[in-house]
TrEMBL record:
Taxonomy, superkingdom: Bacteria
GO biological process, one term: CAAX-box protein maturation
Statement: the UniProt record of this protein carries the keyword Transmembrane helix: yes
Lineage: Bacteria, Pseudomonadati, Pseudomonadota, Gammaproteobacteria, Lysobacterales
Keywords for this protein: Membrane, Transmembrane, Transmembrane helix
Membrane-crossing segments per the record: 33-58, 88-109, 130-152, 172-190, 202-221, 233-253, 260-281
GO molecular function: endopeptidase activity
Alphabetized Pfam families for the sequence: Rce1-like
CAAX prenyl protease 2/Lysostaphin resistance protein A-like domain segment(s): 173-273
Identification of the protein by name: CAAX prenyl protease 2/Lysostaphin resistance protein A-like domain-containing protein
Coiled coil: none
Organism per entry: Stenotrophomonas panacihumi
């Protein structure tokens, strides 16, 4: 799945796999890219709303049972008033279910890997160079985001990522769950959706650069949606730059190694470094 020179060095040659041609039925890869993204967005929104409603029902029953245990009658209006907002763990579970549902449905429905692709991916993962590139990309992405944050701070641009408060609460209350979500589950689902499905469709059609640009834009938009935080225009642009660069780096790694596992490893390692920095130094 790489576009390599004709005679790469031996250490790199072992990583190279041919770029698959676009399926005969996929005569409109760009249209299908946006269709994939739209389907994933609809599933994400529907499942998020359903999960929120489910939390509200469960929380409502808890409030009623707690009131009855104290011998107090409570009416529906009071229940609705006392619901409040989901806690950190509830938000984590809702994000996990909605993101996972979107990634898995679109993957199995729209761009499921063939047996040959799975064999090539595992073969690339067994090569030491794949692990080295994954580590290099992870560290490079973290250094770039840190440097960008420091520069933005000097320019008096102080963005607050939408998920920063949630991750801080999770680290303080549920550290193991936070690590499992950020280092294992979220990278797997996000790479499946953004790199395998979205980027992979245009890569297979022979348009990798366009695939990197569009999938990275989608990745950045999902992580920082305008209006969901108090960030100003410049702060949002700085976050988009960080997330977009991150998405481009992981897409390049997938393209370069031919293994989605390499992108998942790099994504998970980057998140692990960021969480360690947040925990020990309070860095973003």
């Amino acid at each position: 799945m790489n576009d390599l020179p004709v005679s790469p060095p031996p250490a790199v040659e072992a990583l190279s796999t041919p770029v698959p041609s676009a399926p005969a039925a996929d005569r409109s890869p760009l249209l299908n890219f946006f269709l994939d993204a739209l389907i994933a967005l609809v599933i994400l929104l529907v499942v998020s709303i359903a999960a929120g409603m489910a939390w509200g029902v469960i929380r409502g029953f808890q409030l009623v049972l707690e009131a009855r245990s104290r011998g107090v009658e409570i009416d529906p209006a009071q229940v609705a008033h006392q619901l409040g907002q989901p806690g950190a763990m509830a938000q984590l579970l809702m994000a996990l279910v909605s993101t996972g549902a979107a990634a898995l449905v679109v993957y199995f429905w729209r761009r499921r890997a063939t047996a040959a692709e799975r064999r090539e991916s595992w073969a690339a993962l067994r090569h030491p160079g794949t692990w080295g590139l994954a580590a290099l990309v992870a560290v490079g992405v973290f250094c770039f985001s840190t440097a960008t944050g420091m520069l933005a701070d000097r320019l008096d641009i102080k963005p607050v990522p939408t998920n920063l408060s949630l991750m801080s609460d999770l680290l303080s209350q549920w550290p193991l769950s936070a690590v499992l979500f950020a280092v294992v589950l979220a990278p797997a689902y996000e790479e499946l959706l953004f790199r395998r499905v979205l980027f992979g469709r245009l890569l297979a059609a022979g348009r990798p650069v366009l695939g990197i640009v569009l999938s990275s834009l989608a990745f950045a938009l999902l992580h920082e949606i305008p209006g969901l935080s108090g960030n100003g225009v410049l702060a949002i642009c700085q976050l988009w730059l960080v997330y977009g660069t991150m998405g481009a780096a992981f897409a390049w790694l997938y393209w370069r190694t031919g293994s989605l596992w390499a992108a998942i490893l790099a994504h998970g390692l980057n998140n692990a470094i960021a969480m360690a920095a947040l925990y020990w130094f309070g860095l973003q």
